[in-house]
Amino acid sequence: MSWLTLNIGDTEALTASASYGDGTSANANTATWTSSHASVGSISATGVVTAHAGGTTTITATFGGQSDLAVVTIIAVGATVTGLLVSAPATTVLVGGNGDGDGQLQRRDDCDD
């Protein structure tokens, strides 16, 4: 079993490899492919998965009486951004206070500009 994650609209080619009793293996080009939820992810006759909607589908390949599968999870992309608000925390700045904490500004005429 294999696991695959795709975004909606993505495609991915899967391959099937057959193992034989003599210890050899070969590409199973003529495997039969099926999808458990074709509306979520479909599979072509050549093993290409196309992601259609968010969810999970199981892709099964069958060849020579043997089967294996790939679980494909399709991720639905989030909603379109329609607005943005940037804010900052409130900050109080006291300038030239008289030390009594009331935060009132005082004019000083004896300062050099």
Question: Can you tag this structure with a few keywords?
Answer:
single chain; 113 residues; mainly beta; three-stranded antiparallel beta sheet
Write a structural description.
With 113 residues, the chain is mainly beta. The chain has strands spanning 2-7, 11-13, 17-19, 25-27, 32-35, 41-43, 48-51, 55-63, 66-75. It has a domain at 2-75: Immunoglobulin-like, CATH 2.60.40. It has a four-stranded mixed β-sheet, with no helix packed on it. Strand 8 (55-63) and strand 9 form a beta hairpin. The relative contact order is 0.22.
Using DSSP, what is the number of strands? Answer: 9
The CATH architecture of the domain at 2-75 comes to Sandwich
Helix tally equals 0
Mean pLDDT, to the nearest integer, reads 82
Q: CATH first level of the domain at 2-75: which class?
A: Mainly Beta
Integer-rounded radius of gyration: 32 Å
Report strand order across the widest sheet. 1-9-8-5
Query: Level of helix content?
Result: under 10%
Tell me the span between the first and last alpha carbons: 78 Å
